[in-house]
Amino acid sequence: MTNVGIIVGSLREGSFTKKIAQSVASFLPSDYNVSIIDINLDLYNEDLDQPGKVPASWENFRAQMNDVDAVIFATPEYNRSIPGGLKNAIDVGSRPMGSSVWDMKPALVLSVSPGAIGGFGANMALRQSLVFLNMPVVQQPEAYIGGVTNILDADGEVTEQRELSYFKSIADAFVDLINKNNK
Ligand code: FNR
After folding, report:
1. How many whole angstroms separate alpha carbon 64 and alpha carbon 44?
2. Domains, the chain, ranges and CATH?
3. For the segment 42-81, what is each residue's pLDDT rounded down to a tens digit?
4. Dist CA 2 CA 31 (whole Å)
5. Rounded Cα distance, 89 and 147, in Å
6. Candidates 77, 80, 126, 158: which one to mutate for ligand 1, based on the most atoms within 8 Å of Cβ?
């Protein structure tokens, strides 16, 4: 069983980014176990990262991420970078030193925006951290999903065949990376 965790960089109830992540994930093999991991966590503070002081939200997040074999990062772009909540989750998961939940786990980056540039700045900023965290990342497709409000229909679903084919190619590249990593 392959457990895939989806980390959505937006906390917004009606997040477009979450919708796109779910649509891409729908093309993963049916025997994959896919779940969205909550990143509404206490802010990282090294003073709290010691026995007896660790916030429950960090403990839950780290425990869930330890059960995950591969990660989909789906992020909006905030001010040409990733949202603070996503960076915080990355930081929480990276500590304590030597117990990172990210190390060597295959990752997929999706950046999503209503704008034309498709969250390029967020996509690149996220990849910079993933290099340091030692995660093998899908390089192609780079997966900039721009004009998202034109892609989602009135019910908030992706239905256009052109987009669905693109999303399937993204999911296929992720599965290839996971399989290579398991060899
Ligand atoms: C944005 N937005 C935005 N969009 C973009 O393409 N580039 C950017 O740099 C920014 N910056 C930015 C900063 C902040 C603080 C907010 C709240 C928003 C717009 C953003 O793409 C839009 O709100 C998306 O709908 C957010 O994604 P979700 O919540 O729909 O997943």
Report:
1. 17
2. 2-182 (3.40.50.360)
3. 999 999 999 999 999 999 999 999 999 999 999 999 999 9
4. 7
5. 26
6. 77
CA of 80 to the centre of ligand 1 (A): 9
For the Cβ of 113 lying below 6 angstroms from any atom of ligand 1, the answer is: yes
3-state secondary structure 102-117: CCCCCEEEEEECCCCC
Using 50, 70 and 90 to split pLDDT, how confident is the model at 183? confident
Pairing of strands 70-76, 2-8: parallel
119 touches ligand 1 (CB under 6 Å): yes
pTM of the model: 0.98
Q: What is the ipTM of this complex?
A: 0.99
Ligand 1 binding pocket mutation candidate from 79, 80, 81, 124 (most atoms within 8 A of CB) = 79
